[in-house]
Amino acid sequence: MDALPRRFASGDDRVTPQQYVQDKAARSGSSFYYAFLFLPPERRAAITAFYAFCREVDDVVDNTTDMSVAGAKLAWWRKEVGSAFAGEASHPVMQALMPHTRTFDIRAEHLMAVIDGCQMDLDQSRYLDFAGLQRYCHLVAGIVGEVASSIFGRSDPATLAYAHQLGLAMQLTNIIRDVGDDARRGRIYLPISELQQFDVKAHEILQRQAPWGYSERFTALMKFQAERAHQSYDAALALLPDCDRRQQKPGLMMANIYRALLREVEAENFQVLHQRISLTPLRKLWIAMQTNWRGR
Fold it and tell me: What's 15-123's CATH class?
């Protein structure tokens, strides 16, 4: 399977692995990118390469319409991770990441867990209850938070719990923002038990029709989701030890950007079925700068 980008695979020596992952991160427009800007060079290089890996495997699921092809691509990535940790990385993302794995304790099992989370997207499109959704969030966000906190600088073991809780909060925010986008792909991450609790029908979400899709029932359901996300942010911040607060500033930048996004969705009264609410790049940068100045 040819998983390499054409320019890189063709032997164009103008595109180094480091340039490839930098371009991948910059093009994504993610809130993560703005936090990376404030890191010293080695840590910035490590988190950029790790983020690029996460984007690559996530794009397999989001950008491939044939599920069998997506499954084959994820299987390729599993082999590539194994080969890379055996000293034979072939993809530019892994070539950029491997020099940092020992320094920042990035292990193959971390990368495999992220792939497992993406595999869940292929294997199921509904979650019966919040406990099931939490397992998914642990793989696609909690593990990412764990690796990121190690790259940023983690001295207290308690920071690990903070990183996982913050990952959960941010993933819940993504789920709230992306209800319409996910429905377009036939997925509903809101737990079935909670849809039933608020008498919201799956077909109402999947049809993504405005304005009737925005019922009082739907709004009540989304307020419930947002409150849980806010509680997760509060719980995460309470878990962060003071000794690691300065090092974990990039994570706090991301938390503040994502929480601002959550509040924007709330201000728009959860109009997420027909549109994707977002923050402007300038606002993300401003929030990151404010967090850097205040330290929280």
Answer: mainly alpha
Cα distances from 279 to residues 39, 227, 276, in angstroms, run 22, 20, 10
CA 114, CA 59: separation in Å to the nearest integer?
Answer: 12
| Candidates 1.10.238.10, 2.30.30.100, 3.40.309.10, 1.10.600.10; CATH matching 124-274 | 1.10.600.10
Cβ neighbour number for residue 71 with a 10 Å cutoff: 16
Instruction: Give, for all 296 residues of the chain, the pLDDT tens digit.
Output: 444 544 454 344 568 999 999 998 888 767 788 888 889 999 999 999 999 999 999 999 988 888 899 999 999 999 999 999 999 999 999 999 999 999 999 999 999 999 999 999 999 999 999 999 999 999 999 999 999 999 999 999 999 999 999 999 999 999 999 999 999 999 999 999 999 999 999 999 998 866 656 899 999 999 999 999 999 999 999 999 999 999 999 999 999 999 999 999 999 999 999 999 999 999 999 999 999 888 78
